[in-house]
Write a structure and sequence with these properties.
The protein is mostly helical. It folds into two domains: 155 residues, Helix Hairpins (Orthogonal Bundle); 57 residues, no CATH class. It contains four helices and three strands. It has a three-stranded mixed β-sheet. Helix 1 runs antiparallel to helix 2. The radius of gyration is 40 Å and the shape is rod-shaped.
Amino acid sequence: MELELKTLYEVQKIDSEIIENERKMVITPNKIEELNKEIQDLIDKVEKEKQVIEELDKERRRKEKELDVEREKIQKLESKLYEVKTNKEYQALLKEIETMKNMNDATEEEVLILMEKTEDLRKDHQSSAVFLKKRQSEVGSEKKKLEEELNSIEQIVTRLKTERDNLLSIIDGGLRNTYDMLKIKRGGIAVVSVKSGLCLGCFMNIPPQLFIEVMKNRQIISCPSCNRILYYSEEN
């Protein structure tokens, strides 16, 4: 029984290592997905900035075209000033020309504002594009490293499971079933060591006489509190 207990304790250490590595196998793809999302968000940002710039440019050109049309109208009205017969018609024409010029001045101001805004956005867009290229390179390296780690972890888990199965093969079937059942019920930890009369699974005190028996490692003894199998190891 002492050999089986020791073997079961070694199996537990391997299973704990498997659990930790399998946790990494779940986390690592999530990290890769987060990196992919980061890059996609940056791409979307750069594309959105480009679209906004294009819309502003389009709006500016539309207003500039309107200005050209309005300037031609003003020129035609100004040429009519020499054709009017009465002072009333002349004043009315002057007022119309002045109104149109004021409207054009406002439009020209809008065009200038659009040009300034577009220029600022263009600078931001260039910075975003440079940053995107930089992050794409960095993320590419990070993903490659994570993928290599994931592949390494998968190999480690495969090796550990083989070692565990080899050890389990020399353990009695009933004890193996008990171990498997406890592992499911106790979050993957079925065998724990004891230290100074303390169960290192639930950290509850073990009765002194029971602790003495545990130290002998000659029989299966369960923790009175958490029911895990207790094993005494000199290293603890």
